[in-house]
TrEMBL record:
One of its GO terms (cellular component) is membrane. InterPro entries: HAMP_dom, HATPase_C_sf, HATPase_dom, His_kinase_dom, HisK_dim/P_dom, HisK_dim/P_sf, Sensor_HK_Regulatory, Sig_transdc_His_kin-like_C. In the N-terminal section; belongs to the phytochrome family. It is found in: Membrane. The chain crosses the membrane at residues 20-40. It comes from Thermoleptolyngbya sichuanensis A183. GO terms for molecular function: phosphorelay sensor kinase activity. PANTHER family: SENSOR HISTIDINE KINASE RCSC, TWO-COMPONENT HISTIDINE KINASE. Residues 363-397 form a coiled coil. Residues 663-677 have a biased composition (Basic and acidic residues). Keywords: Coiled coil, Kinase, Membrane, Phosphoprotein, Transferase, Transmembrane, Transmembrane helix, Two-component regulatory system. This is Circadian input-output histidine kinase CikA. Residues 332-385 form the HAMP domain.
């Protein structure tokens, strides 16, 4: 598909496609090259670490092989020294024995049996020239063979008189081992000497990490080296002197590791050497530390890096080519959807309500952008719907306010008209007798009390909303307050001929509350039960509950002050609760309307023509008062015409708080607790 340039922009500005292509290439190509460089570096590091590990393990294997070979030679010589043929010193028998023993010893070149006292060769497999002089042998002062472990008598020498010729790049270790041969009477008589050459498998070619073998004595002398001319030289003569000294310091501590050598072969080639220490017994009384190295060229150890470099070069070229082609198509594929999005946004105000931004783009981010635009438009539509709903709710609230004002004005006018009418009848002299005047004045008094109750409710709800309503808590007898409430409602109950069932309590029920407010709550609940019940009964029940957990006793925003304590303090939380249940058989409450009854200004019937009077504030005030006194109030009803049950729960005062309570004098009542909203 041919590449098309973007739309020309005024003022010499580049097109979106061209700008996008240049930015992507400027950012992506350096990152791609950096990634290739990091990959190459990581591969080299990994190969180098593998080579180090393998060379260290190779040095350990070489050292173990050298040590085991020396131990095997010393053991074989010690066993051979115990044979009767050698102890007898018979030349013929000794010669025959040595010729049979020679092939059995690893790397053995020559075997000789030497008289320690005459220094004459008794038997030899390599001529009459001695391998090593035994004039200063250590067994001269050890005549008792039983006092010495026969496997610890050997003497090892690394400087034979005649060295075996070494091929270049084939390391070998020339050793001379001697052990004493004792006579039957326990005196050292002969010396059994072997010259051996220990060779390792030498592979130091590309891909191989076995390495050449190099052995260095603890004094710095090369005992074995892949370059024959360096055997017997000291590390002080080498160009890598400091590195060899560091190696010897590490092996003296028993450590093994890897070091880079830059003058191992006498030129600028870099070598990699893994090393490990071995402990070799030179004599029955002396041991020396030899350092065994596995050495290979660094380019051989990193031979695998060549193929990796070729692969990375091919991969980089392919990626750059594919990247350029991909950027051309990506720039085109991205620019076209963006143009569609711009067109959609420009015509948003004229679009169809059901129209949505197309989401069939081949780029996920652009599809997401289209979804975001659609979501944004949907949210704007939702916000418009929410504004309309809020407007409707405001209208409903305004209607509720109007209903409340109408209801309240009606409730205020009714008793006020009654007061004015009764007073004017008395004032105008329409009463014939004193009893009629008193009857009218009594009716006016009742209407005034009712009017005062309405005004008090309005003041209370205003005080609750403004946080200025205060309570004064003290220990009171719930039984006495309930008795006073029932006496106030007795006339109305008898007038409606309702059956009242109330408990006959013999003991005091002490709670901490504001007596006037508690009486107001109980009176409101009982009067509601009487008001909404035309026939049937009203049942009052009092029971005590035990709760294991402290419920929510004080509503949000309520604080307790004063010296009487804090009801929210866990140390003073009561565990006993008193529940006052007021159950009637009246009109009941629709389940959908029950939650609304505790909201101020809300009534099940808000019209001015409803059957029952009231402002709808009583239960809202009661719930606030009860919760601030540490209790709860709940209403239950199964439905219309199925009665209603109201339960008031208050915490019971414990014995420590009631020990000095006198219900008549209250002389020892604790200081009242002022509760502010």
């Amino acid at each position: 598909m041919p590449f098309r340039s973007g739309i020309a922009m005024p003022g010499g500005q580049p097109s979106f496609r061209r700008l996008l292509l240049m930015r992507i290439l400027l950012l992506s190509i350096p990152i791609l090259l950096l990634g290739v460089a990091v990959t190459f570096r990581k591969a080299r590091t990994s190969l180098l670490e593998t080579a180090r590990q393998n060379l260290t393990e190779s040095a350990i294997r070489k050292g173990n092989l050298i040590q085991s070979s020396i131990d095997s030679l010393q053991t074989s010589l010690a066993i051979a020294s115990q044979t009767e043929s050698l102890q007898a010193g018979d030349m013929a028998r000794s010669q025959l024995f040595l010729e049979k023993l020679l092939p059995q010893l690893p790397g053995a070149q020559c075997l000789q049996l030497t008289d320690l006292y005459t220094d004459q060769i008794v038997a030899s497999t390599c001529g009459s020239e001695p391998i090593k002089s035994l004039d200063d042998h250590p067994w001269r002062y050890q005549p008792d063979s039983s006092a010495i472990n026969p496997f610890q008598r050997s003497v090892l020498d690394t400087q034979p008189r005649r060295r075996v010729r070494q091929e270049p790049m084939n390391s070998q270790l020339d050793l001379v081992i001697s052990t004493p041969v004792y006579t039957n009477d326990g005196r050292p008589r002969y010396g059994l000497t072997v010259q051996t050459v220990l060779r390792q498998i030498e592979v130091a070619q590309p891909w191989s990490l076995l390495g050449y073998t190099t052995v260095i004595d603890q004094d710095g002398t090369f005992l074995s080296h892949p370059f024959p001319e360096k055997v017997g030289r000291n590390i002080a003569e080498e160009g890598d002197r400091d590195r060899f000294e560091n190696i010897l310091e590490n092996t003296a501590r028993g450590d093994g590791a890897v070091r880079h050598l830059f003058n191992f072969s006498g030129d600028s080639t870099e070598w990699l050497a893994g090393f490990t220490p071995i402990e070799v017994s030179i004599s029955p009384t002396e041991k020396r530390i030899w350092t065994v190295l596995a050495v290979t060229r660094l380019d051989y150890a990193l031979e695998g890096l060549k193929s990796i470099s070729q692969i990375l070069a091919l991969l980089t070229g392919g990626l750059l080519t594919a990247h350029m082609l991909a950027m051309l198509y990506i720039a085109r594929d991205i620019s076209l959807p963006i143009e569609k999005l711009g067109k959609y946004a420009r015509h948003l105000d004229r679009r169809d309500v059901k129209a949505r931004m197309p989401k069939n783009f081949q780029v996920r981010e652009l599809n997401q952008l289209a979804e975001v635009l659609n979501s944004m438009v949907s949210r704007l539509e939702d916000r418009a719907n929410e504004l309309e709903s809020a407007w409707q709710e405001a209208e409903a609230a305004n209607q509720l306010k109007s209903e409340f004002l109408a209801t309240t004005s009606h409730e205020l006018r009714t008793p006020l008209n009654a007061i004015i009418g009764c007073i004017r009848l008395v004032q105008d002299g329409y009463c014939d007798t004193r009893e009629e005047e008193l009857d009218l004045l009594e009716q006016a008094d009742k209407a005034a009390i009712h009017l005062l109750k309405i005004i008090n409710d309005l003041l209370d709800i205003r005080g609750i909303e403004q946080g200025k309503l205060r309570l004064f808590l003290e220990v009171v007898d719930l039984r006495q307050i309930l008795k006073e409430v029932l006496e106030l409602q007795a006339v109305e109950i008898q007038r409606k001929q309702l059956r009242l069932t109330a408990p006959d309590l013999d003991e005091q029920i002490l709670v901490r509350a504001d007596p006037a407010r508690l009486k107001q709550v109980l009176l409101n609940v009982v009067s509601n039960a009487v008001k909404f019940t035309d026939e049937g009964s009203i049942t009052i029940d009092i029971r005590r509950n035990q709760k294991s957990e402290f419920s929510k006793l004080v509503s949000d925003g309520v604080s307790l002050n004063g010296d009487g304590g804090d009801l929210t303090n866990p140390n003073t939380r009561p565990q006993d609760w008193i529940v006052v249940s007021v159950k009637d058989t009246g009109i009941g409450v629709d389940p959908e309307q029950q939650d609304k009854l505790f909201r101020p200004f809300v009534m099940a019937d808000g019209s001015t023509t409803r059957k029952f009077e009231g402002t709808g504030l009583g239960l809202a005030i009661s719930r606030n008062l009860v919760e601030r006194m540490g209790g709860t109030i709940d209403l239950y009803s199964e439905g219309l015409d199925k009665g209603t049950t109201v339960e008031i729960t208050l915490p019971v005062v414990d014995d420590s708080q009631t020990s000095t309570f006198d219900p008549d004098t209250k002389a020892d009542t604790p200081e009242r607790i002022k509760v502010s909203s």
